[in-house]
Amino acid sequence: MGPEFRRDDSLAPGEVEWVAPGVRRILCGNPGPFTYRGTNTYLLGRGEVTVLDPGPVDGAHLAAILRAVEGERVARILVSHTHRDHSPGVAPLVAATGAETLGFGPHMTPPGEGGEGGDHTFMPDRWLADGDAVEGDGWRVVALHTPGHCANHLCFALEADPALAPEGVLFSADHVMSWSTSIVSPPDGNMADYMRSLERVAERGDRLLLPGHGPTHDDPVPFVAALLAHRREREATVLEALRAASGATAAAALVPTVYGPALEQRLVPAAARSLLAHLLKLAEEGLAVREGELFRRA
Fold this sequence. Notes:
By secondary structure, the chain is α/β, with parallel strands linked by helices.
């Protein structure tokens, strides 16, 4: 059985909902095939607020964030990763609030080397390494470096006052989403890294995921286990298709065999990128041979 995705999300763009003690969610109105109904922005704390992922440059979303924190002070802005639907909104929010910015660092893949989907404008005031903590009034989050979807991707483990909330809340951004699997697109995306990061999240045994897109997920342990199984099954299918191919082949040529006829045409390019990530991982492990842009069985 594959992952049981959750796509029932009634929150309207610009509205605010409490998703955990001390945590509010605001949905940006930027729906799409990879953003679902839009990017989730989270507000941590009351009075002194930390904003996680302001989203794209979007005037309506910026106004919604500022309305939600009226009478409060935005002290800092956290960034999970530098994709264009998550971090470009930092600059206008800083201009409006003067808040400190924090993240793993700038986007790690230059535009000319396959980093076209990255936000190359973001540079944090404070760089966060794996294990670094950020604290507010009654809470702290610990940064977990989880590369794979994006090389500088961070999840944030919430450690609230036990009187307010039990442990096991993870801001999973785009590493684990409730509504769909995450795209892994080389070179900034790396399937071997993604699988290691997913295994790390699985070992945590969280009770609540707050993703970058889609609704919250309150039963993440079996869900993350199913995501891992799904990726392993997909890799086995890719390897089988490669062994059945006659000679060296491109990743795109294997999409119909691996994904089947039900795949929507608009998703074919993304499927080819994810399939390429699997092939690169297989080549690194000696299970496939890379010949330029082509791959053949080992």
